[in-house]
Design a protein that fits this description.
homotetramer, alpha+beta, Butyryl-Coa Dehydrogenase, subunit A, domain 1, four-stranded antiparallel β-sheet, 11 helices, 9 strands
Chain lengths: ~400, ~400, ~400, ~400
């Protein structure tokens, strides 16, 4: 048994930590202040472009992909701890070209894209020149049940025609967002998991319209954002379909494993940050003759946070290690476990950090806790709600007892 | 034993419900939309003034005060259920001239104000012509421990001089807000609970400055808002002190009982609304072949919400009844109990309602759940954080075992 | 609104409290010690018979029945608080002839029994001369779903013939237990709720056999106990059927309301006792320089216990008041609510009391906490498990939204 | 990163699993039945002696000690998973000579014992010929605070004289138990952690008296048991002191790390067993048209159990790995973390297993769930209550923020 990262992983982690400490964290507050001061916040501030260039130059770029060609050849279990580190900041993931949903979309293209699709979309994504979105969830149906999906991607001769309405299309507000992966029903008569297709849609295609951006607890998370997008008779050549018609579910399945590990590890980084804020505030203020951190049930809260984080991290690392050694099929239950456990854990810790901060805790202008809370809250719904993942864990558990 | 309201209470409740249903609820969405469309939202829209006038004309006005002269002669236990009803709406309390912190401030003036203070401030407050604020919490110290308070209200000849910085001064953004009650240290050498004074401060007094308004989960709650207010050598005649120097704690104590009952009952109304939204959404959408409301652990969530609400309501009614029959000293533990129980309960139910709504649940533009969440979250800190109230409940419990 | 008991209720409660304090509590420990010292503990010790006689002589007898003929004319809401008082002791309920399942069985006989049944069984039960059992739950099926019931009560000419196996037949070990109410399937083709019958079975009828007594966390709860009972071709005259064939569900329904209020109120008395023990232990021992009751999160535990108890009591009183004023059909949701809430609450508080007691808490010989725990744990399963009651609460809640 | 055991560990684990499956599990029920049938249960049944001999012959003996001389040279992280396996059975640990408190006592002797002490006590313990007890907790004081300890081990010339009363001396009822390690105050004036000594006390020394055995939820856990032991002027040569006077705390500290890992891993095995029972029962019974395992919130319960167990196991393995690679000082926080997390987790899962079993769940005669519950409940108090461990985790966490 060995809980250490690989040597390469340790090297990269050390460099990412240094970059975070020296380049990102010092500018973060100013960045948010500057962005907040703008009339139009759907922009990429120069500091981000500069930091991206610097990170790229140092090879801290596309760290997520476990391969030397596209990524840095890091194992999932190595990258996990790096993703955690970047999760302490809201801007770090983009700077290392490791932010959702681009990482997942790039993985889809690497594994399933045609040469032409790779040339057109993967290359600029890997270069950080464009951004992408993923359009799956729909406003009119309970999308936790993917078979509810109503949007269509029908074949018409040499073309595929998209219709439907999607929301929570994350990142679609970004000025560099040029393409979306759209999932829709192609053949209702095919076997259940062969009915849907994934289609690459340039956002300037006629019929694609961003209806509005969605606020999350009052925040639009500019310049990324979550959009409501309608697709009305959007016509594309059949070559825009990824891996051919009917393979949507297969691709979705493969996309999930590493993506959820990344999400969860970033959330653990966020939880560490919330715990750090909680302790610093708790140490710096006194009430009833003691620092708040030592008052009443607060040490229990701190201990429980530490214990939850440690356990969640280990579970995610185990999951990443299974992905590394056995692939997605060997990690199915673990992938659902971390997705069910960690966003809820983050929400709990942030909520407690807010409480220990007192009034300041709920003010967006004074502490990043409301932003962390919104992040946690969304994560309990995004990529499958907690309920769906718990149900999956239970189903796989019961399956162990069948002959 | 009788769990029915008094006849008078039932009559008023019926009328309030009708007013809510016919006058307030139908215009609420349009009101919020109109307000949101404005550049400056720190205004009173005409519809509010009209509804206030209508409510006043029907005698649905100042319902909170248990006396015929100033209020409608309703018992606390009667008003409790009316406050619950108004808690289902964010605008209803002001329309009935029953919103915090004005109700508490009016009570202070009724019980402790001089004739001149009543004439100057109580009269227009009762008439709904002006609004008021309450300035107690301070940004620099853990204000859960009131002895931490740093602001001063020093006597200088015939004057009282205020210095300090307050925040979470609720309602101070309202254009009609004309006066604040300020609490500060007057005599550090007096016995612990005789050191502080409460002072009426016209907001246009030189030295009073609203530094900024505080966002709560991104929302400023216009036109009420929560302000950071600095007081710099604010000079007022000694007659501005309520009930004389050194009586701040005594007044605060008396202010709390009914105020907390009102807060808690409004929060119960909010919880009912969240439960209603949860069920309606849960009934209207299907996943995995069933309405979401009947899926997996969701019926447990609905049952637990109903059971928590019922119990919380009964505890608050008991508390109100104790206030009616024995006064604040007979209800001390109950007042802390409801304040410790109900905001947390509301937060839990709203959080679950969000989850059952799916993505829509976190979008401020689609459902009022984020607003309800922010309301709950603030209430767990306002008027004493949960921890302080639990500590008080425990202290009073242990006291029962002393000889 | 009035949270006071009726005058009659207050009078009885005062007398019961005095009797508890002067007669029962002083002998309780010696009683348990003596019983424990016996080879055969399935006996009624003389002190119990004496105390029964004394209670009966003082009119503190059959307090549970809200009628002057059979009981003392107390309202359910009055008796609730008396039941709470008796719940502080494991022997008190029998002494006042108010223990389950006899109270429920007597109510069944009062409401549904024939004159002959009343003469034969109700009279001696009311006199406290015999005891009874209730045989419904079955070992072979999930009895939470009553339609699973396999036992039969088939009509054969003038006779009814019972077959089946029951368990958790509470009280059947008592030496005075002479009769059981047996529930079985009579007509599988009748409408769902007309299929079962309730039959009065003298325990000495051929074919009735107590197979074994069930330990609950190691305790047999002598001399009451819970039995596994088999019925093999037990033949009785048709007149042994209560209210005629097919009325089993109807009777069961009516039996539940008051019975559950009694159970829940006794459990609240038990919770008060656990809280009292917790505080006394917590006050009497020091660790790390403070009484344990004031250490770390313990005040929160004490406060939460007090808050849970208060809320649970009020909910039960409201339920009892609904039974008094509207009958069982007006209290259906409340009856399920208290049954879902209170046993779990009791378990939680007892568990925390154990923790605060340290090692002593788990020793049956040192504190009554393990006995209280077993009582709570069983109550979460008896009379319908928590899950069934929560499901009922949810079902009734959803029904409010149907047209 | 590597989550696999060492090759040696895998080999031993495979053999232990086979032994469990082929030798222990098949006889377990009969063993318990036979023991229960005896008048005197404080005996070692022949089957145990036979299985011990067989395990010893196969080298499955003293697996716990990470050294080739005394043990099998297994790493803590290897043995952890073996301890988990043995934790599925109440008799397995003794059969492999790996049961508490003997393992901890042997470790103390190995690390701190004199040659003579090793010869006299360690040798027969390693051979499984005798058993031992550990006497630290005291009935009169809150022993969670070790400085409360009142028992004394005073030096009188060449002798050490013991006085005091201990309880929860686990294993002292075993007929082979020949020696206890007693902890007492030697020098009240020494620095805080140099005041106490550990002394080896042959149980037949004059002045040692087992006052009574303690029931835990009605069970005495024969033939091990927990005793109340008084020491009255017990005189022993100074050579009975382990490592010399004043080193009690130092020894206690060193004893804790591996001991707690063993306890926690066995508890995880117990949790796996409870989960297995829960699922088997849940799969085998139907209610309301579905297997109970799939009903309502039960899949969530199963999923949560699986997720808790996985996380707890990983945390314990990490802790064991830290002990292997950095020693106790590198694992202090982890040792407290697992002790705070796992017993509570086990209790929760067992409680839920009971609920899913219905009535049968609380009957000791029908399922081992009450025994598992008692085991969990005791473990939340033994070896430091949850509260002390959480406090330690918090203290170490806060320490990270000090300069």
């Amino acid at each position: 048994m060995d809980f250490n990262m690989s040597d390469r992983g340790q090297d990269y982690l050390g460099r990412v930590k240094r970059f975070m400490k020296e380049e990102i964290l010092p500018v973060e507050e100013a960045y948010h202040r500057e962005l907040a001061s703008l009339e139009n916040r759907w922009v990429v501030l120069p500091v981000i472009r500069e930091l991206k260039a610097k990170a790229k130059a140092q090879g801290l770029w596309n760290l997520f992909f476990p391969d030397d060609t596209y990524g840095c050849g890091l194992l999932n279990s190595d990258y996990a701890l790096i993703a955690e580190e970047t999760g302490r900041s809201f801007i770090a993931p983009e700077i290392f070209n490791c932010n959702a949903p681009d990482t997942g979309n790039m993985e889809v293209l690497i594994h399933y894209g045609s040469e032409q699709q790779k040339e057109q979309w993967l290359k600029p994504l890997l270069a950080g020149e464009i951004r992408s979105a993923f359009c799956m969830t729909e406003p009119e149906v309970a999308s936790s049940d993917a078979t509810n999906m109503k949007a269509t991607a029908l074949i018409d001769g040499d073309e595929v025609v998209l219709n439907g309405r999607k929301w929570w299309s994350t990142g679609i507000g970004h000025p560099d967002c040029k393409v979306a992966i759209f999932m829709g029903l192609t053949d209702p008569d095919a076997p259940k998991h062969r009915r849907h297709s994934m289609v690459l849609v340039p956002l300037d295609t006629p019929g694609v319209r961003i209806e509005r951006m969605l606020p999350v607890f009052g925040a639009y998370d500019e310049p990324y954002g979550h959009g409501v997008v309608s697709f009305e008779d959007v016509r594309l050549p059949k070559s825009a379909i990824i891996a051919g018609p009917g393979r949507g579910f297969e691709i979705a399945q493969g996309r999930l494993g590493p993506g959820r590990v990344h999400h969860c590890m970033r959330a653990i980084g966020a939880a560490e940050r919330a715990l750090e804020l909680m302790i610093k505030r708790g140490n710096s203020r006194e009430a009833f003759g003691r620092p708040i951190a030592k008052l009443g049930g607060n040490p229990d809260i701190i201990a429980n946070a530490r214990m939850s984080i440690e356990q969640a991290r280990l579970l995610t690392l185990k999951c990443a290690w299974l992905l590394d050694t056995q692939g997605i099929m060997g990690a199915l239950q673990e992938v659902s476990m971390i997705k069910a456990v960690i966003p809820q854990m983050l929400q709990t810790i942030v909520d407690q950090a807010i409480q220990i901060h007192g009034g300041g805790g709920v003010s967006d202008d004074d502490f990043p806790l409301t932003a962390l809370f919104a992040y946690a809250r969304v994560l309990r719904l995004a990529d499958g709600p907690d309920e769906v993942h718990r149900a999956m864990v239970a189903r796989l558990e019961l399956r162990k007892y069948q002959n």
